[in-house]
Amino acid sequence: MLGDVAASVAVLTQKAVLEKIPHVFKRLEEIAESVFSYELPPVPVARRLMDLSLNISRQHPDIIFGIGGGTVLDSAKYVSYLLNLPLILVPTLASNDGICSPVASLFLEEDQRSSIRTKMPYAVLADKDIILSSPARYTMAGVGDIISKACALEDWKLSNETTGEEIDYFAWTLSKMAYHSVLHFKDPSLNNKEFIDTLLESLVSSGIAIEYAGNSRPASGAEHLLSHAVDRLLGYSGIHGLQAGFYTCTVLMARDSINYGVVTEFLGNIGFFNHIPRQLFNRELFERALELAPHVRRRFTCLDIICPQVLKFAFEETCKHIDRFLSRDSSENGT
Ligand SMILES: [Zn+2]
Prior knowledge:
Shape: globular
Structural class: alpha/beta
Bound molecules: zinc ion
Strand order of the largest sheet: 2-1-3-4-7
Number of strands: 7
CATH class of the largest domain: Mainly Alpha
CATH architecture of the largest domain: Up-down Bundle
């Protein structure tokens, strides 16, 4: 099909990806008339991607392929947007809903990361065997990012009731279905191919909800603000979905949400908390993130109305709850 539609393909990737899944590149060379591969820098700085786009445009490609993890996909989105070319994404990780969204997380300068609206990919080709062979913490991050929609949607509703912000009900429903499919999956496990299928579909649906709403409201609320705040405080980006899922529990508890129990049980039982970096349990870091989070972006969330003491108490209680899962898992594993 590709051979009929696109004669010339520009592939954006990284060396490690080329070495890990050579069969994907080989197949692409078989079906396209010509393939030009470009290795991306590890840090997606917008200015460098502009230079790269200029370079790519000299080959007159018909289509851009992004093959790799989140950084590669974000860079490919931006390049295809600059060149106004159709984009096909081949994710090698299922770590967040950026695998099929119009939003690219890029550095405008070396130390200033921002979310930039680009355009939706024409297609996403996700191979679950590639995802199954990827490190568990990244797939678990995808689980956390999807589950965080439980919190994001409550914030959207709260904003609607408090500020009158409009709700797009199609985007709302899509996002709700995405996290419900994962949350209520019968036998959730990272080794279960059907669960990986469901996770991939949910991540794609969440990205489509963002496109439909015209912004990331269906996918991002207070828990995302806390995650972004922690990135700034630590000076580097942690694994996004792990952080978003972790803070989802705290925020749901602070809101006294009926979702708190079911979400925390689900994450505990699937082993999500075993992948959370220990520094996130630091109370002082959380308090600093709490102060910074409402200023990360202009978006009304429950952080604007819940008393900080309630959030701090919820954080402490959530950490204790999570610790019970962690000690249960370590005694079951005999460690
Ligand atoms: Zn997210």
